[in-house]
Design a protein that fits this description.
The chain has one helix spanning 12-49. By secondary structure, it is mainly alpha-helical.
Length: 53
């Protein structure tokens, strides 16, 4: 018997949980990518706006 049975019914709750997990992981890694990409520029802009700390 394999791990995946093509005749097995998939519960909709499992689909919702899987989608939520994928969304959380994507949000986390995309946020990290944005922070790396834009973080230095935004920090420099904030320092200039606050009088060049």
């Amino acid at each position: 018997m394999g791990a995946i049975n093509p005749y097995e019914k998939v519960n909709s709750l499992w689909l919702v949980v899987a989608a939520a997990c994928i969304y959380v992981l994507a949000y986390r890694f995309y946020g990290r990518c944005l922070a790396k990409e834009l973080g230095a520029r935004l920090f420099a802009f904030a320092c200039i706006g606050l009088g060049g700390l």
